Amino acid sequence: MRATLTIAFLAAFAHAAFAGQAPAGPAVTFSKDVAPILQKSCQNCHRPGAIAPMSLLTYQDARPWARSIKAKVTAREMPPWYIDRHIGITKFKDDPSLTDAEIATIVKWVDEGAPAGNAKDMPPPRQFTDIDKWHIGKPDMIVSLPKPYELKANGPDEFYDIDVDPDFKEDMYISAVETKPEPYSFKVVHHATANMIEDEEADPVGFFFNEYALGKNGDIFPEDSGRLIKAGSKIHFNLHLHPGGERALVNVSIGFKLYPKGQVPKHVAFTQHMGDNTDLDIPPGQVVRTDGYFRLPRAAVLSAFQPHMHNRGKAMCMEAIYPDIRADSARPGPARTETLNCVSNYQFGWHITYPYADDVAPILPAGTIIHITAWHDNTAANKYNPNPRNWVGYGQRTIDEMSFAWVSLFYIDDSEYEARTAARKKANE
Amino acid sequence: MNKVIVAALFLVVGSPEGLRHWYPTPAVTASPGGPLHGYAAGGSDSAQLPTELPSTKFKSGQDIVPYFEGWIRNKDLSFDLVFGYFNRNWEEEIAIPPGPDNSIDPGPADRGQPTFFLARRQGWVYRLRVPADFGKGVVTWTIKANGKTEKAYGELLPVEEITERIVMTRGNLNPGEDDPNKPPAVSIAPTATASIDAPLSLSASVSDDGLPKPRPAAPVRTPQTGDATTIQAQANSSAPARPRGLTITWMQLRGPAKARFDRTGPIAVENGKAETAVRFGERGTYVLRVTANDGALSTKADVTITVGGGSTAGSR
Predict the structure, then answer these.
(1) CB B50 to CB A288 under 8 A?
(2) Could you give the CA distance from residue A251 to residue A349 in angstroms, rounded to a whole number?
(3) A154, A210, A264, A289: which to substitute to probe chain B, counting the most B Cβ within 10 Å?
(4) What pTM was computed for the model?
(5) CA–CA separation, B99 vs B109, rounded Å?
(6) Quick check: B135 and B158 in contact, CB under 8 A?
(7) B305, B308, B313, B316 alpha-carbon torsion, rounded to 10°
(8) What is the tens place of the pLDDT at every residue in A352-362?
(9) Which positions ≥6 away from A53 have C-beta within 8 Å?
(10) What tens digit of pLDDT does each residue of A392-410 get?
């Protein structure tokens, strides 16, 4: 009931604010009120040379787009952050999304004619360097393809595979990792996965390490956890490319933030497919649900959630189904469940990783089943649907579909599970 | 009841400030069949999403959905429309002869499409050539099975263009166009006469460039206490299968009844040959397909077999 009332209040507030009933008060100006919001949540992408199509650095840049900015922020299409704010965990690291108050400020500014205000009120310009484009911060090490791949202007999707030997001379533990295309490649890279090959003969495919997909940010591992890169490892890049109408050069880089030499994190983190369902059955003209499951073999702390679907993806939820802990029971149930997160407005163009804030990251007991529920929209109402008249199933092409979540986690033993849950309860008392 | 409606169980763990401080809680509140809170009251414009589970498995009684894989641009400027089908049954296999229940439009009902439908999804099974001036034309494949009609629409949408390489990899796109690997070559030995229910030998000759290099099976990684680095290597579905060397696989495309192969699934090619046998229970014309696979790329060849009264005659 409490949660429902909270949601109702927020909905009412949002309706009042976004319906043009701007809160009373002093005039809202670009210099004093809007520029700080744009600096915080928009300018990392909306600046010359970055991924966004227009700059929002100055009043002159932003003024022509005022109505569009209002529309995008009130619909919560921008900044790209599609986690459902009204269910499950909502506290994340590096959350660029706007508060309801910030949206109301932008709405009021636009509705009052988008005034510039006093130039003296402008905050100092945000300082950028090329390295700011990394969501994980300045990498300690960057590995790129030895030379760009040349993608033709038109035609079907292409896959490009290449092994890169970065000449890792010693074992390293990393605290964050991010894969991203070079700026001139953004428009044609559907995804880029990086596998780590430790032994080329024994396992030429290697194991999954990191992925970039359209609009994705990076993986920042929780404190005292990290991933191990063994000396001599090679990186296998797999690029899924979508010709964009003009010849394009393609290069990607993977950036690592390293633990200081000699420091070994307590936990080895990794990112795991969860809830894969390759038996998709998505009829034309319908919105359908698909379910998938993954059982945690040990107690674990989840650090990030990222849905993965294609053009018809509409929403995805991640739920924990707790193990039956009754000592006298031989059957698994009735299960206790808890929705951890939902992305209720999935956007194929933005494969956002949602990294949990450390104080709310799920701590799950061994045997917990992660239940992934996905919805695909194969109707004509889905503007990204390439062909709503035909059935679609699982496949790797953009026009096929997928259904799973990338989940970052690390395992803990039972005693640490007990200690962490006790500490969490105490902190929330 | 063909479908099972399963109510989703959702829980909202709320706090007034809008932050959900997550921790395991002994008590839960569930709302079977109730609204999905985030959508119902959260200001989203999404209507309630379906809770029906379409993945319920049925042995029989379900329909068959044809679907469109994409189109290929041929060197002579014609186009090939490529189709697959999805038999929703897990066991029931259905023969549907060309006609009102299995038709291609425009054109005569029989344009070489599959007439025997194996269980589950069978991709990349049917190609139909259309002329260079096809333009904005549409070819419709209609299948009626177990009382329900389904259609696939083949047209030249730019986003659905594919290449032979994509067909060879069944849509996996790996390896890319510039990979040195060449697809295997496969031929089928002329078939001998045989009687109904008597085995008919099938011999496939296969050659290949040896790429990709066959690999032994990957070591099985199982979680071990205290060894997180082992656990981290759990399989991810994006990893391609490891090449095991040349194999062939037989499947049935057409025929009035089930053709029963002595060996199902991939058959290893040894010394350039792979053999099995097939038995037919009814008279009629059958089309069988062999697919040779080098672990990355595949090549198909079809054989047509007419089964008469007590003997068979084959042709390619």
Answers:
(1) yes
(2) 19
(3) A289
(4) 0.81
(5) 5
(6) no
(7) -20
(8) 889 899 999 99
(9) none
(10) 999 988 899 999 998 989 9
